[in-house]
Design goal:
Protein name: Patatin-like phospholipase family protein
GO molecular function: hydrolase activity
Distance between the termini: 40 Å
Keywords: Hydrolase, Lipid degradation, Lipid metabolism
Largest sheet: 8 strands, mixed
Length: 315
């Protein structure tokens, strides 16, 4: 793929002055249970009378990219109903890449986190981290089963209620594995929605789109990439990871740093994190498909509780 067909968020031209009545919804990464929790929160808000899927901008990263496609392709109630259905856990475990690969379990998740910590410790800065991570993913892709790409695309496609980009503005984050450059896909990128989501979720191998290879959007900066909401008056951030990050604070990639920058630019920001009582549903358990209904229910309950407070903020 030609790079000029993609948006590089470091060079993309955008108005960063807040505009009244402009809203942005940020859907962060967080694995299979994180995806379920995101859908639950949005459905809970919706059932309580607040529809945040009408945001002027939706930013999706990794599991949040899948949620963005799911929530703009169907009403929240339908997305929630599909998430609450228990999915049989396959007997075979696999390390197939993807932040929402329902077959991966705690072992591969922990191994992945350890690899990422080692890369971060060796990296000089965020750009170096992205290059090293991309290189490792390319090395894995070179030795992996050739059918991995097709199987991963089919898996992602099966989760989306629509294969078409929505009319509203949706940004799906990723990183170019060959250069380490951040990438943002949208409906004008010449990339199918399925491929954009599959690339954003590719945490263990480099996903190919045309001539390019891409890795998880969480490597761009963090699991949320809330900085892409600059210029929007009201920003709602849903973070399954609770804003946590593995990178050094001085790199400026943490959600807190990005929220501070948004507020300094005039944006109003609200955030929703999972309740501490639901911590066991995330972290090392983030890829456990059997926990998806519980995570969705936890998110739904939070959405119902938070809706009234957010009504005035969103409208």
């Amino acid at each position: 793929m030609n790079e000029h067909r993609l948006h590089n968020p470091d060079t993309i031209s955008r108005d960063v002055s807040p505009h009244p009545s402009r809203t942005a919804l940020v859907l962060g990464g967080g694995g299979s249970t994180g995806n379920a929790w995101l859908i639950g929160v949005v459905a809970g808000l919706y059932d309580a009378g607040l529809n945040v899927t009408d945001a002027d901008l939706i930013i999706g990263t990794s599991a949040g990219a899948t949620a963005a496609a799911q929530l703009t392709g169907a009403i929240p109630a339908d997305s929630l109903a599909a998430t609450l259905v228990a999915v049989p856990v396959p007997a075979r475990r696999t390390a197939l890449a993807g932040s929402v690969d329902h077959r991966a379990q705690s072992g591969p998740v922990i191994d992945h986190l350890e690899r990422r910590r080692r890369i971060i410790a060796a990296a000089e800065d965020a750009a170096d981290m992205r290059r090293r991570t991309g290189g490792a993913a390319l090395d894995l892709a070179a030795t992996s089963d050739p059918s991995t790409q097709a199987r991963w695309r089919a898996t992602v496609a099966s989760r989306l209620p629509s294969q078409h980009w929505p009319e509203q503005r949706v940004l799906i984050t990723a990183v170019n594995a060959e250069t380490g450059a951040p990438v943002v896909f949208d409906r004008n990128s010449g990339v199918d929605l399925v491929d954009a989501v599959a690339a954003s979720c590719a945490s263990g191998f480099a996903y190919g789109v045309d001539d390019g290879r891409y890795i998880d959007g969480g490597y761009r900066s963090n699991a949320e990439n809330a900085d892409l909401a600059a210029g929007y008056e009201r920003v709602l951030v849903l973070s399954p990871f609770g804003g946590r990050a593995l990178t050094p604070v001085e790199w400026g990639l943490h959600l807190a740093s990005q929220v501070d920058a948004l507020r300094a630019g005039g944006s109003r920001v609200e955030m929703i994190f999972p309740e501490s009582s639901a911590d066991h549903l995330f972290g090392a358990s983030a890829m456990d498909v059997s926990l998806r209904p519980s995570a969705a229910q936890a998110g739904y309950d939070q959405g119902r509780v938070r809706a009234e407070r957010l009504m005035e903020f969103w409208r």
